[in-house]
Structures are given as structure tokens and as C-alpha cells.
Amino acid sequence: MTLIIVLSCIALLILMIAVFKVNAFLAFLVVSLFAGIGLGLPLPQIAAAVEKGIGDVLGSLVIIITTGAMLGKLVAESGAAQKIAQVMVGVFGTRYIQWAMVITGFVIGIPLYYGIGFVLMVPLIFSIVYRYKLPAIYIGLPMLAALSVTHGFLPPHPSPAALVVQFKANMGLTLGYGMLVAIPAILIGGPLFAKTLKKIPSNPMASFTAKELPDQELPGTFISLFTALLPVILLGLAALLPLVLHPDSSLIPVITFLGQPSIVMLLVLILASYFLGIARGKSMDYLSQIFGDALKDIALVLLIIAGSGALKQILTESGVSKEIAGYLQVLSVEPLLLGWLIAALIRFCVGSATVAGLTTAGIILPLMTATHTDPNLMVLAVGAGSLMFSHVNDSGFWLFKEYFNLSLKDTFRSWALMETIVGTVGLIGILLLKTIIS
């Protein structure tokens, strides 16, 4: 009965948005209330869960998304994105530009949380799309597939890193196995799959549409690359320095503070405002106008993501994930496959890859221990399952839809199917790896 209620709520959400054209944020709020009532939550708890879900998702993303949007707008308007696009095409050519995007997404995706990487890379994707008249999904999806796979499979991302600890796996070995599994998943779910999507119509978010500037007005190659990649550099240093410094070093608290994604994005925005704005003769009024325009474009995206957080919280507090996982735990199947399946169904129900991974950990741990299953492979199996079935209750789904300005149908056809492909290919790779090392 629980699963029927969840499926009915998801169907109602799609119907309200796609057929009756209800504003997505309002649709999320209405469906969240229906879901809470249908799943038996006390009425006062429903309102509190909706507010908590909105607060949690916005609390972790609002600074990153807003500063990222302002940075992206500045990078586009200043000509820095145009310069980076010229350099990348010069190195790889338009014929192999997809592979450049994959490599960039993979390298950036290892240290960066998915939402940050998405917001930072979108201006680069769109600058190449606009300048060279290439299909947006064809160019953008390979990079985002790489970001998604690193988020689900590889430490130090939150879910796989936590799973390593809970399963008592080896961080280095898990990362090594994860690399072997991640590469084919990215290649199949990214460049190869994207070749089938060239005809999907996409008019990306206007915030990143900048008029093309003459070459003499563009910023230099170094400052363009430095500004765009500075968040990656700072976050990478923040992760690396505590490993080489003494644990009692007085620098650790400072590095921890400066390494917070929201602080990094704010610092980078300040530096970019100087290097791409003031140092090139632009006024603060000019910069304020750019930032204001960026925030107008991002407001609806923030509300939709907030709505998805409300529904996620209702489903989490109702115990849907644990109930479904309990049904599956009695099945007599390969433990790696079962861990993947539990994570996949929890992801389908609650929308969050991190929640799916961490919820599955407590359920599958006793079985993993009893069957002496390789804990490093179980981390990857749960991570692969947590990427499956992204749809309307996933904030990543809406980020992709709104930034690329797609219909619901085309978002399912591109983003949702890509996530399912990388999760499935990941499972196949894990099972093959098991036969090789066992």
C-alpha cells in the first residue's frame, strides 16, 4: 500500500506540471501535503516536515546556487567563457569536444560536490553551445554524467565516504575500484548516449547567454581559466592540506572555514568581480546589474528545488525507505545486487542519492558481514544504486530541466535515462570486477 501511495503522488505531480501546467513549486507543495496525509503522518508533523525539507535543501544550496549564478553570468558577460571555449576547441577541435567535457567533468567532479560542479560548469557548457552552434544536450550531458558518477561512486563525496566508514572498507582501494567502474559508466552514459539526443530542442537559461565579443576585448587565457577553476583549486586545497598538516595545527580551523563551499564561492565571486570587472574598467553599477539579472533567472530554480526538498522530507519521515528496504532484505539474491536494488528503490522514492546510500548502509551491513562480501565493492554497489531512477522528486532533475530549459518529457528522455544508464553500467562493472578479484 505504501508503494502505491508513493507512485500515485509521483504520478499526480507529473500530471499537475505536464498536463495542467501548474507551477512546479506549488505542485510540489500540494503533492507533499497529499503524500503526508496518505502516508499517515500526523497533521502538525506534515507542515513541519514541509518546512524542514525546504529549509534543509535551501540551507545547503542557496548560497552556492546564487553565487554560482552570479559567477556564471559574470564569466559569460566578461568574455571569459568565450575565451575558455576557444581554448578547448583549439585543443580538442569541435569533433572531439565531448571528450574534453568528459575529462573536465571527471577531474572537477572528484573534489566538488555535484551541485557546485553543476553550477560552475554550466557557463562553460553554454559558451561552447552558443559559440559553435552545437546541440546543448549533446555537449552538456557527458560532463554532467561525469559529475554524477563521481558524486555517487567515489570518495571523498559524502555518501561513498560515509559508506566506506560504515562498511569498514579501504578508502584508497574503494577509490581505485571506483575509478575502474566509473570510466565505462561515464563513457556509455555520457558521450555514447548523448549521440542519440542531438535533436532534443534546448534553449539554455538566458542568464548565460552573452553577446560574442571581439577577440581584442576578451580577457586573457590565464585569467579566464584561473577564475573559472579557482573554486576547484580552493576546494581541492582545503581537502588536501589537512592530510599533510599536523592534526593540532592552528591552520586546520582556518582551512576548514575557508574550505566550506559557500565561503569558497563567495571568495571566488569577489575575486572574479575584481579580475573580470573592476580591473578591466567596469563599474560596480555594471557588476550589480549583472548579478541582479542572474538572481532573477535563478529564483524559479531555487523554488522548484525547495519544493523537491519538501516532498523528499515527507517521504523520509514517513519511513517509506525503511519499509521498502525491509521487504527486499528477505530476498535470496547476490548481496551486491541486493544492496544496489535497495538503494535504487529508496532513491526512486525519496529522490536523494545521499539519503538512499546512507539508508541502505544500515540495512545491508548485517547481510554483507554474514556473507563476507567485499566491503569496497558494496560501497560501489550501493553508490551505483543510489544514482538510479532520478525523476521529479530529485533536485538534480530540476536543475538540469530548468538550466537547459527542457520539457518534462525531454528531461526524462535525457537526464533521467542517463542516470539510469550510469547506475546500471556501474552494477555490471562491479559484478565483473568481483569475478576478477575473487
From TrEMBL:
What InterPro entries does the entry give? Answer: Glcn_transporter (IPR003474)
Organism classification, top ranks?
Bacteria, Pseudomonadati, Bacteroidota, Sphingobacteriia, Sphingobacteriales
Membrane topology of this protein: Multi-pass membrane protein
GO MF annotation: an example: gluconate transmembrane transporter activity
Q: Which Pfam families match?
A: GntP_permease (PF02447)
Q: Which family does it belong to?
A: Belongs to the GntP permease family.
Q: Does the keyword Cell membrane apply?
A: yes
Identify one Gene Ontology CC term for this UniProt entry.
plasma membrane
The highest taxon in the source lineage is Bacteria
Keywords on this record?
Cell membrane, Membrane, Transmembrane, Transmembrane helix, Transport
Question: Where is the chain membrane-spanning?
Answer: 28-50, 57-76, 96-129, 136-154, 174-197, 218-245, 251-277, 298-316, 336-365, 377-400, 412-433
Q: Where in the cell is it found?
A: Cell membrane
Name by which UniProt lists this protein: Gnt-I system high-affinity gluconate transporter
Tell me yes or no: is Transmembrane among this UniProt entry's keywords. yes
Main localisation: membrane
